Fold this protein.
Amino acid sequence: MFIWSQIIFILCFLLAIFFFVRNVGRIRKNISLGQDINRSDNKKARWKQMGRVALGQGKMTTRPIAGILHIVIYTGFILINIEVLEILLDGFFGTHRLFLPYLGQFYGVLIGFFEVLALLVFVACILFLTRRFVSKISRFHSAEMKGWPTKDASYILLIEIVLMVALITMNASDHILLHHFNPPISSRISVLFANLSSADLALIERTAWWFHIVGIFAFLNYLPFSKHFHIIMAFPNTWYASLESSGKIGHMESIDNEVKMMFAPEQANPNIAPPESFGAKDVNNLAWTSIMGAYACTECGRCTDSCPQNQTGKKLSPRKIMMDVRDRAEELGTFQRQNPEKENDGKSLHDYISQEELMACNTCNACVEACPVLINPLEIIVEMRRFKIMEASQAPSEWNGMFSNIENNGAPWQFSPADRDQWTKDLEE
Amino acid sequence: MKEKIHIPTMSELAANNQQAEVLFWVGCAGSFDDRAQKITKAIVKILHSAKVSFAILGQEETCTGDPAKRAGNEFLFQMQAFTNVQTLNAYGVKKIVTACPHCFNTLKNEYPALGGNYDVIHHTVFINQLLIEGKFSIKGGAFQGKKITYHDSCYLGRANGIYEAPRDLIEKLDAEFIEMKRCKSKGFCCGAGGAQLFKEAESGRSEVNQSRAKEAMNTGASIVAANCPFCTTMMRDGLKENDSSAQVKDIAELIAEANDL
């Protein structure tokens, strides 16, 4: 019997890891649909950036309430993992509270600390649910949040609440059984169990133990299908995020050579073939870091909430851009796996993101600035605009006028270049 | 009538074997737009009064390509950049002062990869440097008792992290300075950037410039200070449509006014 529980546990563990690794592999493949770009320079600055923004939650508290509640859950998640480690080891070796004999008095302190965190996480999750469904904060109820995204958010919070309840229940029953440690939260709850027999208590303890750890295994496997995957992707995303000033939009090297061919053929490289297409038609034309950003997005909506176009009622929503990139990467990735002989399913990212959305962007960087994990929706919008303008010739007519003015008069308006210095006359006469 | 100022062009100086320390990059708005020309003239008066050795490109200046690039026309952008870099490098330009944060951002951040490496400075930062170096001073008094708020442009603010120099200059005006709710890195766009100035907005509840103008009006300021010719236009229109009597002025204009230039 004793050995059976170990076997079942190890089996559960291996299955959880197997499926998780397989799904992470799927996401990895989807991310690598994107174009190669080098974001591995200046490693020191990158580690620092990741440390500050992801590990240190450096951008979270620009919105204090959500920020502090998030830091509570984040800290709880990280530290309670120490108790989860004990649970895992107990499961493997068939032991019970493996660390207790080694840590003595300190064990109680540690469990007490975890329980306080668990209670805080519990409260934070309730408050998050309240913000979402009772206070009805507007950014949680925009068009792109209908259906699965809202369900996903609720599931995550409910699962965390249930896991914390299981942890406390386990400690409460064990507190009566063991008497070795005096946990501050669960010892108060154990009053509820005062009249139960040892056998009943043991049953509750075991049930809560199994429920908690199998729940964690299940949650782990929920991640790759959920926005909650951000808890992993926030780290690589902040590491690979641009280190340059956000005003800089990278130039297209493929066009360099073309322009040189026109203006200075002696500087051009005749061996470089002209580019096959311009800009992003589909996710595989985006930089791989843009697709990674889509998987790092937890749909918090800070970007959309600060977007001037969205806030004045336009369709553009930077959060939707990221969700669309992710959904399309999933769709294209799945298609390619199922049809290895074909490259494309005939659809594109433009089936998800409309002309109206793309053309509205002010390139103001408010979304980039707002993102707590350094996702850049603007890079995607610009790449898609490049496709619209240079490949599909779908510029708004006023823009075509502006382009031809720049080309012919050197200014976006229809003025003669000879009048450019007319203003000096007023000062000189 | 005020003092006459002669504004040399780079080609004029080159013909006389002279060079200016600073190229003043006027920008398309500052060159052609009636409203923005006033900002240009204010900057020139300040440069002149601080005895800065400067010149303009005159008719050799062309659009940096910013609106084309942000609209998605990278080809046109690179054609503009190629032409401008050739002109700038031919004159051996080292230091550029711009009147427009869009030109500033493009010259500073996007030209280096295309062979144009210059020390690019926005006029508010440059004027602030002149103050710090003691080459120029601002007379207080003209704005005493007035309330001024400041609109961060996206391309000076978020894009390049310049928040303090413009505020330092406003502080020197002896007026009452009041921030809008969304300021600095949280500043709200005027609605012009990303080539939006050149097309109709998509349909929605309201216009971006209206929203920002209302926010400025809520401060009770009679002057909205700006650092960008496009913001100046958008905010002026937004205020007008909301029947506000508040005026939009570039910081350079406020300083020129304070010093009676």
Q: What stands out?
A: Chain B touches chain A through 77 residues (CB under 8 Å). Residues 10-131 of chain B form a domain with the Rossmann fold fold (CATH 3.40.50.1860).
